[in-house]
Amino acid sequence: MNEPASLTLTDGTVATVTEYAVEVLEEDYGIVRGRVKKGSTGEVVLVSPKRYNGKIVRGTKEVPLRDLLAIHVYNTCPHLEEKDLLRFQIVDGDARNLMPSNVVKVMKIVPEVKERKPYTRKQVTVLLERPEDALSIREQEGLLSEAFPQMRGVAYAILRPDRESKTGSFSQADDVVQNVAMSLLNQIRAGTCDSVSRGQFFGWCFSAVQKAASWKYEALAAGVCRDVDHDEAEILLLRVKRLEGDLRERQGLPVDHGDSSPLDGVDPVWLAKQLEKDAEEEAKRARQRIREEGGRWDAVGLKDEVSGIDLEELVTSDVESEDETELAA
């Protein structure tokens, strides 16, 4: 059955297959001849099955004779290996030589599975000992207090106010300096600062604040940072606006009513003076609190939001005083 036999091709040549293959092709698939197709990769013999798995095939569907023989006649590739099969190949390159020994299978390349590295516990970083000639922690704390005003100057130079681009302000620079100072203080007390001289320590402080201020500046310029500095006047106006809304609600008026305002009878000059006076008193209380806590605040540049004055009480008292004046008159 494995003796060579010929299958006629349309170009007048023949394809060499086994006698058993000629019988199976004719009885099971209705194939008695084939044709040679030339392509970019060489010649290939194609056949048109008239039957497949006992059913009639409609149309002229062509399949490579090499693949049909390898799978259904020669059993070159078992069913379990079909998922890993890439293609069939002719050994000697002659498309007409379709004997079993000349048709071989080419399997897919199985990717190499890298074994996972065994888990190893991360080594604990050993802190290096401080140099013997390094400044003591007490000396470094004193130098940090001395370097703080100069660190503020470095931050001011980077985050200088710019009305056009809004890329910095003094209050934002103060926040940066305070955060950097607290971070440096924690490092000093942890013993990680190994500065051996005053100049080296100052350079360490200036480098840290310059890096933080530059990062803040880049974030503001890129629009990533959304920090907003509220002006004191803006805060006061917002408080007055809230007060007006509360009075409208108590009087049964809509909040967005624009005809009249419960604050129309209040003298704006008098209200502004009262708010300014309250702000000064709040600043004094802040200074006194810092002195009691042992700190030092030579100049309070950022006043807290007005919180000690009852605006409603001020408005009510002012309206009542005006009514009494009118009655007396």
Describe the protein's architecture and organization:
α3 (137-158) runs antiparallel to α4, α3 (137-158) packs parallel to α5 and α4 (170-189) packs across α5 (198-222). Strands 2-1-3-4-7 form a five-stranded mixed sheet. It folds into three domains: 4-107, Homing Intron 3 (I-Ppo) Encoded Endonuclease, Chain A (Alpha-Beta Complex); 137-222; 232-328, no CATH class. It starts with a strand and ends with a helix. The longest helix is centred in the middle third of the chain and has 25 residues, at 198-222. The protein contains eight helices and nine strands. The chain has helices spanning 19-29, 65-73, 137-158, 170-189, 198-222, 232-250, 268-292, 311-328, and strands at residues 4-9, 14-18, 33-39, 42-47, 51-52, 55-56, 63-64, 85-90, 103-107.
Terminal CA distance reads: 136 Å
How many helical elements? 8
* Element string (H = helix, E = strand): EEHEEEEEHEEHHHHHH
CATH topology of the largest domain: Homing Intron 3 (I-Ppo) Encoded Endonuclease, Chain A
CATH class of the largest domain: Alpha Beta
- Using only C-alpha atoms, the radius of gyration works out to 46 Å
Helix content: 40-55%
* Spatial order of the strands forming the largest sheet: 2-1-3-4-7
Q: Which helices and strands occur, and which strands form pairs?
A:
Layout: E1 4-9, E2 14-18, H1 19-29, E3 33-39, E4 42-47, E5 51-52, E6 55-56, E7 63-64, H2 65-73, E8 85-90, E9 103-107, H3 137-158, H4 170-189, H5 198-222, H6 232-250, H7 268-292, H8 311-328
Parallel strand pairs: 1-3
Antiparallel strand pairs: 1-2, 3-4, 4-7, 5-6, 8-9
Helix pairs in contact: 3-4, 3-5, 4-5
